[in-house]
Write a structure and sequence with these properties.
The protein is of the alpha+beta class. 67% of the residues lie in helices and 16% in strands.
C-alpha cells in the first residue's frame, strides 16, 4: 500500500500543480482584464487623435490646393494684363495721330484742287503744328540746337567747319533729334564750329 500512496502522491502533486496553474491563469486573466479595459479606453483616444490629425491634414491639403489654384489664376491674369498692356499701349497715341492723318488727307485733296500755293502752305503749317503738339502731349520733344553749344549727349556732329563766333557752337542742324521723356530717341545731326 505504500506503493499506492507513493503512486498517488505524484497524481496528487499533478492535481495540486493543475489547480495552481488554473488559479494562476484566473489571476492572470483577472489582472489583464483591467489592463485590457484601460487599453480599450486608450485606443479610442489614439484613434480619435489619428482621425483628428487626418482631418487637419485633409484641411491643410485642401487649403494648399486652393492657394495653388489661386496663384495659378493670378499668374494667368497677370500675363493676360501684360499682354493687353503691350497690345494697347499705343492706343491713345495712335488715336491722337488719327487727327493728323485726317488733316493730311484733307491737305492732299486741297493740293489737287488748289491753284495757289499760299493756302497750301498755311494748311501744311497747321498740320505740322498739330503733329508736334500731339507728340509733345506724349512726352516727345524735338531737339533743335541751332546756335547752342555742342552737347555730345544730345547732338551728333557730322563735321566741324571754321566759323565766326565761339568754338563748339552748332552752326547748322541737318536733322532734328528727338527725346522721349528725357531719353534720347535720336540725336540731332549738326555741323559745329571749330
Amino acid at each position: 500500500m505504500t506503493q499506492n500512496n507513493t503512486a498517488t502522491t505524484p497524481d496528487n502533486d499533478a492535481m495540486d500543480q493543475g489547480s495552481q496553474t488554473s488559479t494562476t491563469e484566473t489571476t492572470a486573466n483577472t489582472t489583464t482584464a483591467p489592463d485590457t479595459a484601460a487599453a480599450s479606453d486608450a485606443e479610442p483616444t489614439v484613434h480619435m487623435l489619428l482621425e483628428d490629425a487626418r482631418s487637419k491634414a485633409d484641411e491643410h491639403w485642401d487649403e494648399v490646393l486652393r492657394l495653388r489654384a489661386e496663384m495659378d489664376n493670378l499668374r494667368k491674369r497677370t500675363e493676360r494684363d501684360i499682354d493687353n498692356a503691350r497690345k494697347y499701349a499705343l492706343e491713345r497715341f495712335v488715336d491722337s495721330l488719327l487727327g493728323v492723318a485726317d488733316s493730311l488727307d484733307l491737305g492732299l485733296k486741297a493740293c489737287m484742287d488748289a491753284s495757289e500755293v499760299e493756302p497750301l502752305q498755311k494748311g501744311t503749317e497747321i498740320m505740322y503744328n498739330q503733329f508736334f503738339q500731339t507728340l509733345e502731349r506724349f512726352g516727345v520733344k524735338a531737339i533743335d540746337p541751332q546756335g547752342q553749344t555742342f552737347n555730345p549727349d544730345l547732338h551728333q556732329a557730322i563735321s566741324m567747319v571754321p566759323g565766326e563766333g565761339e568754338a563748339n557752337t552748332v552752326l547748322q542742324v541737318l536733322q532734328k533729334g528727338y527725346q522721349l521723356n528725357e531719353r534720347i530717341l535720336r540725336p540731332a545731326l549738326v555741323i559745329v564750329s571749330q
